[in-house]
């Protein structure tokens, strides 16, 4: 049975950028893709993003560990993304990998 390798992260604090997120979630395993959703007009974070790992087990551990984690005064909301969303071709279309 295929497992989703993508996690959704909500309530990302302002000032927490992609390179920090890669380092932060990279402690769980290989990060193959990453994106923080940003406003097209301002470039500011919309407060949520996605991280793709090399395997589904890593994604599950990362989501379970980081859900409700307090980061810069904000409590993260983290869960494994459903497979249909994880497979969406545009999910990481504008990411910096």
TrEMBL record:
Localization (cell): Nucleus, Nucleolus
Molecular function via GO: RNA binding
GO cellular component: nucleolus
One Pfam family named in its UniProt record: RRM_1
Isomerase found in the keyword field: no
Highest taxon above the source species: Eukaryota
Span of domain RRM: 5-83
Keywords annotated in UniProt: Nucleus, RNA-binding
Name this protein carries in UniProt: RRM domain-containing protein
